[in-house]
Amino acid sequence: MKIRTKLYGLVGGALLVLVLAGGVYLALLSPQERIEDERRTLDELSTALLSLQVEVNRLDSLRFSMGREHLASRLKELDAAFQAVRGISFVREKNERVRESLEAIEALQEIILEDLAEVQGLYESLYRWAGRLYGVGDSVYPKQFYVIPPVTGGEEEREEALVQLSFFDNALTGLDGSVETSLSVLEEQTDLIDGQIRALRRQAFSSSLVVVGIMVSVILLVLVLTARGMVRRIYGMLSGIGRLKEGRLSVLFDTRGKDELASIGRAMEEFTRVLRAVVESMSDTVSASREVRESLSGVSVETNAALEKVSEAVKGVDEKMVYLEETAKATAAAVASIVEAVDRLKEQIQVQASMVEQSTAAVTQVITTIGSMATIAGEHTSQGEELVRISKEGKEIFESGFRKMEAVVEMAGRIEEMSRIIGNIASQTNLLAINAAIEAAHAGDAGKGFAVVVEEVRKLAEASSRSSREIAESVREITGAIEGARAGIWDTRESFSLIEEKIEEVSAAIAQIAGNLQEAGTGSQQILSTVTTLRDTSNEIHEDSLQVSEQTRRIAASVSALEEVVEYVTSAMRRVEEDFQEVLDASRKASDLVVILSEREVALEDRLSYFKTSDS
Does the pLDDT value for residue 333 go beyond 70? Predict the structure, then answer.
């Protein structure tokens, strides 16, 4: 009888024993499988709660398009898990404490779903707020409410959205507490069910062990009787295996005969041949791996050095961006100061333009007054000439009769009246000159030339006043002379000659006053032209100041935008620096792995050296 047949019999008996033992075990474990199924239901509920907790805790960092989808999915999973918990019946009936725990879990469902409904409602509200503030809410996540200014909404709407966000955070906290409570209850229930399962397993294992022990004893008895004939050949094979264990791959096995041991010997020789080929192939592979490892080590070192340089460069750029941010803030402050200075300059220019307008009006008034004075002086000049002519005619006919002396007295009265008029004109001219001097002083540097002209006009008015007084005195002398002429004709003739001389002097003085007033009028016209030019220039400067104010405000807005860009770039550079640090850490880990690979390679070579592919 071949060993194969014997072994087939032994295997068949062993299989029969195993089938019988399995039947007993399955019969004893059928309630256990149902308990395990119901326990897996609790595991699924625990998994659903953990998934919900994880998903809820990262809602504020997810875009609304993903967050809404994930939240709805987790809600469906949680509802299905609770429905499965309600379907637990076997464990509920077997254990009172389990039933109470399941009822507590089912009661927690209402609390969790209520908190979850509140969270979902607030999340939808935040989604609508995101649409109002940023146009499209799907690509926005809640944390952006804190850092990104609104695009389509105002700051007041943003504040309301932040209030909703605080409510949302509070609701998340409450939901997290409910989930933690549910997980605690689930953990307690799982421990109870695990205790029940362990008790059933012990019972089933004990029963199965008794049955299997009996059957195994029978099989062992048969094996002992069968094994005696194979011990010798097996010892020989064990000897070959021992040499194979020592790494001698050139060992030979007994292949005589046609039984299974001979087949095993041939198989072992084939195995030895294949193992020898594998060892030789592994040796070649280790050599190739050494070359790859050395190349990888060099590349890793170069990569680490390059990443170090890039990291230093990124840090330098970050420092420059910080300096640029500080410079932008200083520029913004300077531009704000410039805007304030330009506003003050604009106000001063407006005041100056107003003063120039007032000066123009004053100069125009002075010119008008001087023109009037010139007209009056011209009229009195012609009267003075007429008076001279009359005095000459009076001198010629004076000797014809003293009767006309009364007419001379009348003419002297007229002259006295004219002297009073001239005196009044001189007083008014002096007063106007003082007013003009005050206006010229108000005009500043632009009124200095006009002040000189006004001073000359004032002096001319004083001279005219003195002349008028002299005329008045002369008239009084003429009157006295005429009165004396009544006493003596010869004294009258001499006085008449004196009157003629004085009249000529008065006429010359009036003519000189008229000429001076004409010159003053011409100078005043020049002053008016200059003041008009100054007024136009002031208006142009005022318009330019308005443009400068507008440009400085635009510069201030540009600097403010630059501050925002610099702040964004600085934040991005810091994130880049963090990413480069992560890459550098990964590269260093790769270097460490290269070292570990080298150590493993040495160990593998040591293990391969254990095998000897030839007798030498």
Answer: yes
Query: In a 10 Å sphere around its CB, with 0-12 CB exposed, 13-18 middle and 19+ buried, how is residue 191 labelled?
Result: exposed
Q: How far is CA 355 from CA 33, 413, 448, in A?
A: 106, 47, 15
Which residues are 612's β-sheet partners? 248
State the residue for tokens 């501050």.
563
Instruction: Please give the structure tokens belonging to residue 478.
Output: 């003429």
| Alpha carbon distance 328, 331 (integer Å) | 5
Tokens read off for 204: 């089933």
Q: For the residues of 158-220, what is the DSSP string, one character each? A: HHHHHHHHHHHHHHHHHHHHHHHHHHHHHHHHHHHHHHHHHHHHHHHHHHHHHHHHHHHHHHH
| Range ranked top by mean pLDDT from 82-91, 145-154, 312-321, 537-546 | 82-91
How far is it, in rounded angstroms, from Cα 120 to Cα 83? 21
Alpha carbon 67 to its chain's center: 25
Q: Torsions phi, psi of 612, nearest 5?
A: -120, 120
124 Cβ partners below 8 Å, 6+ apart?
A: 68
> Exposed, middle or buried, 395 (CB in 10 Å: 0-12/13-18/19+)?
middle
Using one digit for the tens of pLDDT, what is the confidence trace for 89-142? 876 777 777 777 778 778 878 888 888 888 888 888 888 888 888 877 788 878
In single-letter form, the type of residue at position 309 comes to: K
Q: Name the token pair of 267.
A: 């198989």
What are the residue ranges spanned by the domains of the chain? 3-234
Residue keyed to tokens 């062992």 = 220
169: tokens are 């955070």
Residue 555: pLDDT band (50, 70, 90) is: low
Q: Contact 168/176 with Cβ under 8 angstroms?
A: no
Reduced to 3 states, what is the DSSP secondary structure of residue 613?
coil
Question: Nearest Cα to 314, choosing from 589, 587, 584, 590?
Answer: 584
- Tokens 């007295």 belong to 409
Tokens of 202: 């012990």
Is residue 1 over pLDDT 60? no
Q: Are the C-beta atoms of 461 and 412 separated by less than 8 Å?
A: no
Give the tokens for residue 520. Answer: 């003053």
pLDDT band at 354 (very low <50, low <70, confident <90, very high): confident
Neighbours of 460 (CB within 10 A): 22
Which residue(s) pair with 248 in the sheet? 612
- What is the mean pLDDT of the segment spanning 414-441? 76
Phi first, then psi: what are they for 248, rounded to 5°? -85, 95
Half-sphere exposure for 608 (CA within 13 Å, toward CB): 19
